Amino acid sequence: MSGDATDSEAEGESTYPDVCVVTHPLGGAGENATRTLLEILSAITTISLVTAGLPEGSTIREDHEVVELTTANTGESIPVAAARFLLNQFRMCRLLARRDEEVVLFYGAIAYFLPICCAKLAGKTVVLEPRGNVPLTLRLHWEQRVPGPIARGLAGLVWGLERLGYWLSDAIVTYTPSMASSLGLERFEDKLYTNGARYVDTERFTPRGPFRERDHVVGFLGRLDEEKGIRTLAEVAKRLPDDVTFRFIGDGALRGWLESELSDEIAASTVEVTGWIDHDEVPDQLTELQLLVMPSAPTEGLPTTILEAMACGTPVYATPVVGVPDVVKDGETGYLMEDTSDEAIARKIQRIQTSDDLRSMSHRCRTLVEEEYSFEGAVERFAGILDAISQRGMVSGMEKRNTDGTDAVN
């Protein structure tokens, strides 16, 4: 954080507006990403969270002020999901009208058009921070359940709501410049901030021993779902030589199919399927890999798994989607997957494994995360964003406040 901000904190005052974070129903990766954002913001100013469906046992409730609109998620049925989506928006409107925070940050909930309008009418500053390509994610999900034209039409409606939200907002924050470009946000450049904060706990996620001592294990970590390219990776695993083990770390809808499809390889110990693992076990798993392979669809903004792997000194081979190319720099901190056929991926993995670059690349991965994605770096970046917003006069009537709530002398 800048020297001025540090001095202000030392004197017991905050120069930043209070922030209310609004998200869609949380679960799994969404909960982890939201926790990260809340930790960053709470190091800068006073925050609260408005959400729905927060998983039981989530530590977010213990660490931050949380307002839960409902414990129900969006539901399996598309009509039920749509009804809950609309109902939650009305609930959010009523709630936001009564909140005191000067800034409302919609995190991932970019299509929440009604609450965005309500916040604007209440004189609050509206900031939108997408987590990824939600319309594409929903389309891929819906295409498994309804005819393609219907899925595309529904996804198009969500896309339209997002565009309206971007147009109404006072500021837009993305993880990286490539993410902004991928989501088509260049037209909003006058209110666009492309250095949004992400961070990795570099003490927990750290190399465990020399890279040269790692076994010939490559793998995937995440949800075993269609959008993650799991069916392609199954074919890749079949094509790799017997001295290379492919490890699938995680759980999901395709786990049963995967274990059946690769039963012979699992029996021969050339493929491993770990199932669900606790987040505390993730660093150990990532440190055992020589290479993380991520042929994902362009749905996520910047997968946390990629940053965590690099913090562990594990290079990444991933599709160049959304914010990934700003972190996985081809030939420096990993490899970009231009050809996503199983034959091409398998050939590339074999070439990578026989290369002499992996050890030095492992060191560069760790260095990049330490320099750009530490907690301190993330706090400094987001403090700069809030400062820029306030300097532009977006926060109406914003004043410096002491931590006891009294006005400070400027």
From TrEMBL:
Q: Which domain of life is it from?
A: Archaea
Q: Which residues form the Glycosyl transferase family domain?
A: 205-360
Q: Please list the GO terms describing molecular function.
A: glycosyltransferase activity
A Pfam family that the UniProt record links to this protein: Glycos_transf_1
Q: What is this protein called?
A: Glycosyl transferase group 1
Q: Which UniProt keywords apply?
A: Transferase
- Entries under InterPro entries matching the protein: Glyco_trans_1 (IPR001296), Glycosyltransferase_grp1 (IPR050194)
